Amino acid sequence: MKRVRVPNSRARHAEPYLRCLQLLLVSALLIGGIALGANADVIQISSPEDSFVEDSEPTVNFGFLGGLYVGDKVPGAPNSIARTYIKFDLSSIPAGAVVNAGTLYLYNTVIYYPAVTVGAHFLSNDSWTEGSITWNNAPTVYNASPTDSKTISMAVWTSWDVTPDVQAEWAGDGVYSVVMKEPAADEGADGNYVLFNSNDDPQPGDRPYLQIDYSPDTAVEEMRTSWAMIKAMFD
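Given the sequence above, the corresponding structure tokens read:
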């Protein structure tokens, strides 16, 4: 006798609901153009090491000071070019996470009239240290073009979008270094400078930090697991 399989009525009636749930999960994966958009998170990383260097005092280390100069530290002096070096340890980003954005924040307390343009130049050499860096030994091989540049004319928080540099270092050695400097045409010529707070500033809330927007690598797997559990309920 030929056997006829009778469809499971519960599964048959549940099929439209399963399809709707599947579409909802797929839509969540596609929102924002990335699979992890629904589970993005944000952390702020403090700078463990920062300092400025100056060509008029080429052997002096300024890593212990509460300020970071960029520009002409001594306006009118023939040699007073100041550049700032900042380093961030990215290890607090969860392992396997996808870095969606990296933003550098600095707060300046002094701006020498009228304005100073400051660029964030990616530095792949992380060997320098806050307590030993000087003009003479500071790494000088960094990106000639800034990843981002801002013109500052007042005491205010300023941010630089350094996403591609942070992404590269997150995929690399996990340490991000940056050189903050004026354009070459302005250094030692325009007589202006800006003074940022360093990681030694007495006010913790005014110190440099790197904001990371990231997506945990578990987001897609969690959605797949959820879908499997829902589907199993109707099988």
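The first helix runs from residue 9 to 30. Try to locate this feature in the token string yourself.
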